[in-house]
Amino acid sequence: SFRGFKKFKNRRNNHKDLRYITTPGVAKKYQTLDWYQPKKNSGRGAIVYIHGGGWHTGDKKNHMDDKVRYFRDDLGYSFVSVNYRLIERHCRKRKGRKMDPCAFPDNAYDVAAAISYVLKNARKYGATGKSVSLIGHSAGAHLAALVSTDEKYLKKYGVTLSNINFVAPLDTDAFDIPKREGDPKTIRNAFGRNRNVWKGASPINHVKRGKTPPHLLVYRGTKGRKKNVERYERKLRNMGRFVKKIYATQYSHEQINKAIGNKRDKFVTPQLLEMLKKYNWHHKSNACKCKNIW
User: Fold this and answer.
1) Which is the most buried residue in 51, 104, 144, 191, by most CB within 10 A?
2) pLDDT band for position 98 (50/70/90)?
3) Res 253 pLDDT > 50
4) How far apart (Å, rounded) are the C-alpha atoms in residues 115 and 108?
5) DSSP output for 176-203
6) How far apart are CA 81 and CA 60, in angstroms?
7) Backbone angles phi, psi at 173, to 5 degrees
8) Is the pLDDT of residue 263 over 70?
9) CA 278 → CA 40, 132, 161, 215, 288, distances in Å?
10) Which DSSP category does 158 fall into?
């Protein structure tokens, strides 16, 4: 149970609903981000968080208190939470008179556009413009992994995989979508019925030697779910990429998200801290002053 922690401090540095891109016919809320600025410029890459919700629901403001308290207030990082186009009937764009729902890969391009916006505006909000760390949960974990492997999304907005210092996809089995276990309706709703689209949307098919950033994989669930994650882990290792895998059997799917940044969490957050120290610390002056946090 994760309860009883105070709201995050420093609210005047909470920059809400920043529009990172404007697509005609798309409501503003789908293409905005919330930027939580630290008191001092850290000189480190911002942390970009991508929410879950089965690709059709969810919001950037959900379960933010512990994340902002820990990453910004305790560790001094610039922390960003991103909305993106959802596969649901209220997210629409105009084609002449016809109204169409948003569809894949709209969401992946939105995440890439948000990363580009963060890099371009990083110094204004207390971070370096050289790189970011990506954390995603559930459907957001899939999108984080996809834009960190298939470079076409980032390249559209002038960014490359070298601008991702690490990615942490937390509790998704959508690394290899055709072999994913679970409700097939979820996949058809998110990606349609074309299996070639499923393959293109699968991060496992885009891992590249010498380019794909380091990964932290946190997962739980059934044997089929575990096998999907382990296939992705093997692909990363076979391509010589760094990957660390954590099997969080003690948590439910939702609890993994709630655990991020929580003071009582001993499994997910410490691993994220290790990734930050390894790939997003940069300067000796930024040495961790967090001995008493855990």
Assistant:
1) 144
2) low
3) yes
4) 11
5) SGGG--S-HHHHHHHH-S-HHHHHHT-G
6) 5
7) -120, 30
8) yes
9) 21, 13, 17, 12, 11
10) T
